[in-house]
Amino acid sequence: MARPTTNAGNTQAELVRNRAKEGSAEAQFNYGRFCYEGRLVDQDHDQAASWWLAASKQGHVQARTRLGHLLRRGLGFEIEDDDIARWWFEYERSFAEAGDAEAQLNLGNMYAAGRGVNRDDAEAERWWRQAAAQGDAEATLQLKRRSGETGDLRVQWELALTYLEGRGVPQDESEAARWLGLAALQDHAEAQFRLGQLLMRGPAGVRDSVKAVQWLLRAAEQGSREASRELGDLFREGLGVDASESEAKRWWRKAAELGDASAQYNVGMMNLDGRGVAADPAAALEWLLKAAGQGHSDAQFQVGRIYKDGPSELRNPAEAEKWLERAAEQGHCEAQQELGWWAG
């Protein structure tokens, strides 16, 4: 119950409250304003809603308008009496039937949640479609969500990207993970990869390294080069799995054979440095050239170094200069330094 906050306010507030309790619609409206604004009494949106509802039932137009605006902001719903929800349903329906898109959206939401009316999914969709036809983005999103929940794979993937990247909505990794999961269960390889990546490196509330590896494996088994590369990274770093140079190379090589430039670079460097395998500059050059040809600046730099300072049978000054220049043009500092020393 709202309480007076000052002596002066106490007198005025009590007078208005007493008249409101006696049934004066104007007093009910005014006391609701006191509660809403925190003027003369403590701020209490639930009490404001309760008094404005009482005034609205007596036909007070301003109270009806104020109450509608309050409820649309998600306030005033904590009072025990569910008269508020029923009243709001009738309020929104009157505007929805007159063509108001926001009211149509809200009416759809109320049917979907069973708030103020019995739940009715068909009616929810009917009102959302009317709002969406007027360009209401949230109604369009609600329709997509309903379609995704009934198994539409294309929509599930679209919603996953919507929440993952914040396309027109606040970015929400938890919601993204939910939609990625639904698409992943339908063997969508890209969804499986993105879900594994999110579960491995996402925020604390989403992270689950065991499930991450499981989804990455499923994506890799379907030929996802990104998932194979990610698995190679995980085995190299020992994240969610036991660190293993040989497993890292195995997964990187699979991704490299599928054309992934980063994996091609990693396989090349393992061959060059002899990590997990015997050092083999010729094999290293073969893989590094594949990555360099895709514009990978680190690979371009390493190719330049092999042609410049590698085994005699691989040296080629003209090729060395060409690849170092390509890396330098991309802002690769070491390549720029190498060219400077060479010219000097």
Fraction in helix: over 70%
- What is the chain-wise order of helices and strands? HHHHHHHHHHHHHHHHHHH
What is the global morphology?
Answer: elongated
pLDDT average, as an integer?
Answer: 91
- Helix vs. strand class: mainly alpha
CATH class wording of the domain at 1-110: Mainly Alpha
CATH superfamily of the domain at 1-110: Tetratricopeptide repeat domain
Our Rg estimate from Cα atoms comes to 32 Å
Per DSSP, the total helix count is: 19
Terminal CA distance reads 84 Å
Biggest sheet descriptor: none
CATH architecture of the domain at 1-110: Alpha Horseshoe
Structure commentary:
With 344 residues, this protein is mostly helical. The chain has a domain at 1-110: Serine Threonine Protein Phosphatase 5, Tetratricopeptide repeat (Alpha Horseshoe). Helices cover 72% and strands 0% of the residues. The protein has 19 helices and no strands. The chain has helices at 7-21, 25-37, 45-56, 61-72, 83-97, 101-113, 121-133, 137-149, 153-165, 173-184, 189-201, 209-221, 225-237, 245-257, 261-273, 281-293, 297-309, 317-329, 333-343. α2 (25-37) packs antiparallel against α3 (45-56) and α16 (281-293) runs antiparallel to α17. The N and C termini lie far apart (84 Å). The model is unreliable at 4-8 (pLDDT under 50).
In short:
This protein is mainly α and 344 residues long. It is 72% helix and 0% strand.
How do the strands and helices of this protein lay out in sequence?
Blueprint: H1 7-21, H2 25-37, H3 45-56, H4 61-72, H5 83-97, H6 101-113, H7 121-133, H8 137-149, H9 153-165, H10 173-184, H11 189-201, H12 209-221, H13 225-237, H14 245-257, H15 261-273, H16 281-293, H17 297-309, H18 317-329, H19 333-343
Helix pairs in contact: 1-2, 2-3, 3-4, 5-6, 6-7, 7-8, 8-9, 9-10, 10-11, 11-12, 12-13, 13-14, 14-15, 15-16, 16-17, 17-18, 18-19
